[in-house]
Every structure is written in structure tokens, then in C-alpha cells.
Amino acid sequence: MDLRELYQEVILDHGKHPRNHRFPEPHNREGRGYNPLCGDKITLRLQLDGDKITDVGFIGQGCAISQASCSTMTEAIKGKTLPEVQALFSKFHTMVTSDEGADDLDALGKLAVFAGVREFPMRVKCATLGWHTLNQALDDESGEATTE
Ligand code: ZN
Is 3.90.1010.10 the CATH classification of the domain at 3-139? Predict the structure, then answer.
């Protein structure tokens, strides 16, 4: 199965049945994200114990790409430390915005299927919304993360 087929499969699967589609209790961080270009909205909550994300969940609405990306992200970051999460975000961001991340696709696991969105700038904002919302939650700033 090539990356394009996998992409379709992951978007369909996670778009229809998002993982961690709930608010974890307890939680001590919250981020809200909005992508005005597409209308995608995400509220992400997580429990940060020390520097480890022990639980995470989100409620959102919007296109299948935004919801599937946030869903796969929650799977990828759960149980990881902040440095690990930052490294993952950095790799993901490079992958969807440039050609340079190609060597790192293995390290991204399922997240690698989003490599194809870089050809579609509008879709990049959908695919990165969850990650921007995560950053905002970790910074614990009030207000909304936006892709603009
Ligand atoms: Zn979207």
C-alpha cells in the first residue's frame, strides 16, 4: 500500500471515528484552535504530569483532514514527554511544509500519511491545526490558537 492509499484510509477512518474524542479527567491544560479558512474548530485538553502527557483528548468539528490529523496526533503524543512531543511537532511541521522531511517519515509512523498535504496549502492549515492547538495548550496561554 502506498502513502496515498494509506492517506485515504487514515483520513476516512480517523475522520469518521476520531480517537480520544473526549475530554480527559483530570486535565490541567486546554487549548482552543480555529482555522478560519476552512471553519475547523478544536478544543484540546490534556493532563501534564511533570513533563509527560499522561492523557489527552479533543472535541472538534470541521473537515475530515483536521479531525483525522488531531486524532492521530493524540495517539502519537499520549505518554510522551514534552521534548519528544516538540521533536515530533518539528518533524511533522517540516514534513507538511517542505520537501526536507522525507528522510524522517519512518520516525513519524502513521503521521507520515499527511506528507501529501504539502501540495495543498489550504490543507496544510487543516492538518496542522491540532498541533498548533497543542502548542497553545502547552503554553497555557488564554485565547485561541489560529492558523492565521
Ligand atoms: Zn479543514
Answer: yes
